[in-house]
Design a protein that fits this description.
single chain, alpha/beta, Ferritin, Rossmann fold, 3 domains, nine-stranded mixed β-sheet, 9 strands, globular
């Protein structure tokens, strides 16, 4: 079996030799569109074998097989000029008048794509390496799935792109707790590179998918939205690798839709998401929302949006930043959230989960739409023994959630878990930033008298230990 990991490593090294590729972000984007086009062509070949009438939406001269697949084909300036002048411009301007969803996706992928490589000989070397992977063989596809995950992880340290990668441990745990099933409409309105969507696909596939019709249902009910070109391209490719023939991912800013236009036909059973936080929304997007909820903080608007998209009885698992506090519009949004949904669980995560992209503390929130919150259970996730912080080389692992999963089914208060009534939350101005009472006991403030006594006791104990030490030394 060929080593796909070695192929990808070799690709990276070759691309670093090209003077046009500057830094990880450009390298990932370049590799991304090349892999996408190869995957699309391999998938087209597979469909052509099954369906004689199928015609690829990609014009013949732009299909991978006709310009890239021949290892001794175009190279040098001829290849570079073909990519710059014909390939990318041709794919950006694909005819979508027929309503072909696959054509639209390809066009949207290449709308935001650039060819950074300047050396046509190096481009040929990269293409030849990619030709060693056959995305129609399940073995190659599954091995490449793991390699693809490492490419997505590289986004964490690639400038501004880190926000689009959520650690797999979190996507898988949240998905398992929410447990989407076949036929349920699943949405991620800020899908990044598609981590939650692929977790949902795998969760449903292993329980419910028995044949072609089930797969069609799955394809139809998994829906993502993404605003930025690179993660959009990567999420589409990610879903194709998971056997979704035509991914239902919209190249849109999900916040830039009139709030009241989201009607019953748009509503979904499940939302899984890690919306961007700490970022401002695009100019004017907040005016799509009722006056009471208008803010330029993206995480707050996404919370309002997700509550709107959920059906009554729908459920969600999302990631939001800490603190879940603040007055004014933030308080009004939390009040609306708690009155519209049963927020039954908050899992507080350590600061370093999203390192090196962000050092802020985050929370996993689990809720159901349609009934107001009566009480909230909190669980404080602790770093593993001997680990001071998560990092790129020491990420959070799903196995760390074993204790939480066990507690989930039979809840009791302990040093990691506590519950808070809605009355307490209301009295606290709807703040959800409630500390672990065990930790609070340890950190409580002491009066001056108590501090003096503690200091006196400490000195007294020190004197006793010193005297004991003197006696032992004298005896020695």
């Amino acid at each position: 079996m060929k080593n796909i990991g070695n192929i990808i490593d070799s690709l990276r090294k070759k691309m670093r030799k090209d003077p046009g590729v500057s830094g990880d972000a450009q390298r990932i984007e370049q590799l991304g569109w090349m892999i996408s086009l190869k995957i699309l062509d391999d998938k087209d070949k597979e469909i052509e074998l099954i369906n004689d009438k199928y015609v690829s939406p990609i014009p013949k001269k732009l299909q991978w097989r006709n310009w890239a697949a021949d290892d001794e084909g175009m190279t040098g300036d001829e290849l570079k000029n073909f990519i710059d002048d014909k390939l990318i411009s041709g794919l950006k301007n694909l005819d979508v008048s027929s309503g072909n969803k696959r054509a639209l996706i390809i066009r949207e992928i290449f709308e935001g794509t650039n060819n950074y490589m300047k050396n046509g000989i190096v481009i040929r070397q990269v293409l030849n390496k990619l030709n060693q992977i056959d995305f129609n063989t399940s073995e190659d596809r599954h091995v490449f799935g793991d390699i693809y995950e490492t490419i997505l992880k590289d986004l964490q340290s690639a400038g501004d792109y880190g926000e689009f990668y959520t650690p797999r441990a979190l996507t898988e745990f949240i998905t398992e707790m929410i447990n989407p099933r076949l036929g349920e409409a699943v949405l991620d309105p800020s899908c990044g590179t598609g981590g939650f969507l692929t977790s949902a696909i795998e969760n449903i596939r292993k329980q419910d998918v028995k044949g072609v019709e089930d797969l069609k249902t799955l394809e139809r009910t998994i829906h993502g939205m993404e605003l930025k070109p690179l993660p959009f391209m990567l999420s589409v490719t990610n879903l194709i690798l998971h056997d979704i023939e035509v991914p239902n991912i919209d190249y849109v800013d999900s916040l830039n839709r009139e709030y009241t236009s989201i009607g019953q036909k748009d509503k979904v059973d499940v939302i899984l998401a890690n919306p961007p936080f700490g970022a401002s929304v695009t100019d004017g997007a907040e005016t799509n929302y009722p006056q009471n909820f208008r803010t330029t903080e993206s995480a707050d608007l996404f919370l309002v949006l997700m509550v709107r998209y959920l059906k009554d009885g729908g459920r969600a698992g999302i990631i939001l930043p800490d603190p879940l506090a603040g007055g004014g519009v933030k308080q009004r949004i939390r009040q609306h959230f708690l009155e519209s949904c049963n927020l039954h669980t908050i899992v507080k995560l350590p600061n370093s989960v999203f390192q090196p992209y962000a050092g802020s503390a985050t929370n996993m929130l689990f809720f159901e739409k349609g009934k107001p919150t009566k009480e909230v259970w909190y669980w404080e996730h602790k770093l593993p023994e001997g680990v001071k912080a998560y990092s790129k080389t020491k990420p959070i692992k799903k196995s760390e959630f074993t204790g939480l999963a066990k507690w989930w089914r039979k809840r009791k208060e302990n040093d990691q878990a506590w519950k808070v009534s809605i009355d307490t939350i209301i009295a606290n101005e709807y703040s959800l930033d409630i500390k672990n009472p065990c930790a609070q006991e340890l950190e409580r403030e002491y009066s001056s008298k108590e501090l003096v006594k503690m200091l006196h006791d400490s000195f007294h104990k020190s004197d006793e230990l010193l005297e004991k030490l003197r006696v032992e030394m004298k005896n020695d």
